[in-house]
Amino acid sequence: MKSTLEELHEPILNSVQPLPTEPEAIANHHETDSQLEKVLSDTKLPYFKRLRLASWIELKLLFRLAAPAVLVYLINYSMSLSTRVFCGHLGNLELAAASLGNSGVQLLAYGLMLGMGSAVETFCGQAYGAHRYEMLGIYLQRATIVLTLTGIPMTVIYVLSKPILLLLGESTEVASAAAVFVYGLIPQIFAYAVNFPIQKFLQAQGIVTPSAYISAATLVAHLLLSWVAVYELGLGLIGASLVLSLSWWIIVGAQIVYILMSEKCKQTWAGLSLQAFSGLWDFFRLSVASAVMLCLETWYFQILVLIAGLLENPEIALDSLSICMAITGLLFMVSVGFNAAASVRVSNELGAGHPKSAAFSVFIVNLISFIIAVVEAAIVLALRHVISYAFTSGETVAEAVSDLCPLLAITLVLNGIQPVLSGVAVGCGWQAFVAYVNVGCYYAVGIPLGCLLGFKFDLGAKGIWSGMIGGTMMQTIILLWVTFRTDWNKEVEVSRKRLDKWEDKEPLNKN
Predict the structure, then answer these.
(1) Domain map of the chain by residue range?
(2) Cβ atoms of 299 and 312 closer than 8 Å
């Protein structure tokens, strides 16, 4: 008789059947199977030994990717946060302007560019796993072209930020100050356009630690330059935003130097190529699907705050929600790191033709992220009565935050699963499907349900947030079901066909 644990895990280890023999030209890419795939396929090993060895191999691969990625996202978050702190010391108007420019206008470009950049994860990750190393540099250049062109209409939005903010109801004083701050962020748009493809290009190869070192060094330089620009030179808002743009270009420049100088990128970067200009439209379509998928998630929780501003006592609701969102945003960086790791692991294994490894990676990364999220939620609940005092000394707000902490804990647990499943989707190339799921769950269910509970049933902020959680839970269940039902052998074949299709579009490959 099998144990219960063995019965639960046996489908992961044994349900994926070996692939049929591949043509010799493709099989040469897979002459050396991954150690993980060998262990999972070795039925001669006792079950628990197989599970133990496979788990150890996967955990080493996972944390080597996730830990530096978490650090990179935390540092990037800290750069924008520190800029707001510097502006806040200039006065309340400057703080409002920087917050509006960062959280409103800049977040739009960040979400769009990061989302579009995730298309590189799908292609580069699968190409690297398939040993088609020369294609990674082509995908990097193609993505940079597409994102740079996308930056042009984004620049127009930045230039017109003042009338747009006035149209949205902001005061003339705040809109004018925010526009000055936003003008200094225009160079940052194009830094995003280059940075995110480079970041995904490196992540696909498992090169994450150098980006963490570069980001850490840049943060130190950013703090020093911000202090000089804002206080010593008296450049105010425009100085602070220009330094933020410069810091992102420092990161870009350092990563370019690394790619050109590192031995690790010799096979994946062969220099500039005209091949990058082929297939731009198809690449743009997948990039847009990726961007929609990410932006719909980002905007979802922003809308929560906007709706809360319509309640009868909006000040307490907004204060308590902003504190909870700040905690969620900080801890969300951990989930984003696992999102990146999941995308890389799944795309690499699919490209390499390892269905068992891809399925096992999905299980392990979700399990680890879920455990971390549960620990985070438990800590938040244990500190529910005092956690708000890190942000404010108001007792009324502290009580409101304490009242919302159970919902915060549920959100943190869901954030331990949902972003990781989105990373799996990126690794498989399911961005368009997830975008449709997000529209239905978030905007057709979550927001209307939140408004119904918050206003019709007079549950206030708790009602709005409960509805939003309902949408997130629905989306998570759908992604869990789709992932559980996935035929990983079929995904390997889809990955191979996708890579073959894109290689066929390279004119210089056809002699």
Answers:
(1) 56-502
(2) no
